């Protein structure tokens, strides 16, 4: 039997302890080695989760930004829509206002047209006549024989409007004043009674002959006033001469207060005006100027064309020797003429006619009627 020494036993114990310690130390290392890949996978998974979270946050931010932009655009569109609506409203209001103004103007015009003339207020339109004339006053007579062919209220005294200018022209023509003398339109010639317009501005310079032409042909008020104002002795003297001439001619139902006819106080009767037409027709200058269809005058650097206020002077059916028209609301539409119809020289007077073209219409009715009378006379003479 072998016996070990104490020293050898001690060495074996140390070796066993070392082995045990090595195994103990190796086991955690192996475990750590096995667990290392799992940690990497966890780190990768965590990174992936972080990336997903970041993407989600980014997506939410983009969505939020889009929503914000959408919300920003929506108010902008609302503002734009509001502005468009406001603009449309303004346009609509402006259009409404324009229509209202037009309606008011039309209403005012209707009121102006509906304003009764002196003849209407006197009931003269209720008087009947065989030709159903639209004028409340009318007179047609043979210039040579003085035979009255038609009369209607011929002694009624009414405003005569621009028929007044026929007397103005007669005095100017008979005064033998220089027709080439230059006259100037001044503020005194501007109409302050009816506020009528004129193409002859203040400062316009025309000869006396041109002023007379425009006054008789196109019824130019400023021209007629300038003729009276520049007459030797002044305007009031001229008006006095107008009344003196009327009395001299036996026009006892006539009075003048100014040379244009804008005042309703310029009044006469068809009987008196027939006398004036007969006398005025004897003046060559008045015949020529009153029946001129149109005339051009140089006003500064412009050429202005004026037309005759009586459209019948341009008609081939008429042979008119002298004419004058007139209109103010108090007088209605007025027309006086000397014309040859069916071989007869006639003087026609129409006052207070209702309707823009009614005075010419009355003249046409008279012409047809006189022509029919001539035909009947010819038939009777041939029997």
UniProtKB/TrEMBL annotation:
<keyword id="KW-0133">Cell shape</keyword>
<dbReference type="GO" id="GO:0016787">
    <property type="term" value="F:hydrolase activity"/>
</dbReference>
<dbReference type="InterPro" id="IPR018044">
    <property type="entry name" value="Peptidase_S11"/>
</dbReference>
<feature type="region of interest" description="Disordered">
    <location>
        <begin position="35"/>
        <end position="56"/>
    </location>
</feature>
<feature type="domain" description="Peptidase S11 D-alanyl-D-alanine carboxypeptidase A N-terminal">
    <location>
        <begin position="128"/>
        <end position="353"/>
    </location>
</feature>
<keyword id="KW-0961">Cell wall biogenesis/degradation</keyword>
<comment type="similarity">
    <text>Belongs to the peptidase S11 family.</text>
</comment>
<feature type="signal peptide">
    <location>
        <begin position="1"/>
        <end position="32"/>
    </location>
</feature>
<dbReference type="Pfam" id="PF00768">
    <property type="entry name" value="Peptidase_S11"/>
</dbReference>
<protein>
    <submittedName>
        <fullName>D-alanyl-D-alanine endopeptidase</fullName>
        <ecNumber>3.4.21.-</ecNumber>
    </submittedName>
</protein>
<dbReference type="InterPro" id="IPR001967">
    <property type="entry name" value="Peptidase_S11_N"/>
</dbReference>
<keyword id="KW-0378">Hydrolase</keyword>
<keyword id="KW-0573">Peptidoglycan synthesis</keyword>
<keyword id="KW-0732">Signal</keyword>
<dbReference type="InterPro" id="IPR012338">
    <property type="entry name" value="Beta-lactam/transpept-like"/>
</dbReference>
């Amino acid at each position: 039997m072998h016996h070990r020494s104490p020293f050898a036993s001690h060495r074996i114990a140390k070796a066993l302890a070392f082995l045990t310690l090595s195994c103990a130390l190796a086991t955690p290392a192996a475990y750590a080695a096995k667990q290392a890949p799992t940690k990497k996978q966890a780190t990768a998974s965590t990174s992936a989760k972080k990336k997903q979270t970041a993407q989600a946050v980014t997506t939410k931010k983009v969505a939020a930004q889009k929503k914000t932009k959408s919300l920003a655009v929506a108010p902008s569109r609302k503002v734009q829509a509001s502005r468009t609506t406001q603009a449309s409203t303004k346009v609509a209001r402006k259009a409404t206002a324009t229509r209202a103004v037009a309606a008011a103007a039309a209403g005012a015009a209707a009121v102006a047209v509906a304003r009764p003339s002196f003849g209407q207020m006197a009931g003269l339109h209720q008087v009947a006549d065989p030709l159903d004339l639209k004028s409340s006053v009318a007179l047609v007579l043979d210039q040579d024989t003085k035979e009255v062919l038609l009369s209607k209220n011929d002694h009624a005294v009414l405003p005569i409007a621009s028929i007044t200018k026929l007397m103005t022209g007669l005095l100017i023509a008979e005064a033998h004043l220089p027709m080439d003398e230059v006259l100037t339109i001044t503020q005194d010639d501007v109409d302050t009674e009816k506020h009528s317009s004129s193409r002859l501005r203040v400062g316009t310079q025309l000869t006396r002959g041109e002023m007379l032409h425009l006054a008789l042909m196109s019824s130019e008020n400023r021209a007629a006033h300038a003729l009276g104002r520049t007459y030797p002795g002044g305007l009031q003297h001229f008006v006095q001469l107008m009344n003196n001439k009327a009395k001299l001619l036996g026009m006892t139902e006539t009075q003048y207060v100014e040379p244009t006819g804008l005042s309703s106080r310029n009044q006469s009767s068809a009987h008196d005006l027939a006398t004036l037409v007969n006398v005025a027709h004897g003046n060559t200058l008045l015949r020529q100027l009153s029946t001129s269809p149109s005339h051009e005058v140089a006003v500064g650097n412009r050429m202005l064309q004026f037309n005759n206020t009586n459209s019948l002077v341009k008609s081939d059916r008429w042979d008119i020797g002298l004419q004058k028209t007139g209109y103010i609301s108090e007088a209605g539409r007025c027309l006086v003429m000397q014309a040859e119809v069916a071989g007869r020289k006639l003087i026609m007077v129409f006052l207070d006619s209702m309707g823009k073209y009614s005075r010419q219409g009355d003249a046409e009715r008279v012409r047809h009627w006189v022509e029919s009378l001539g035909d009947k006379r010819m038939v009777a003479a041939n029997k």
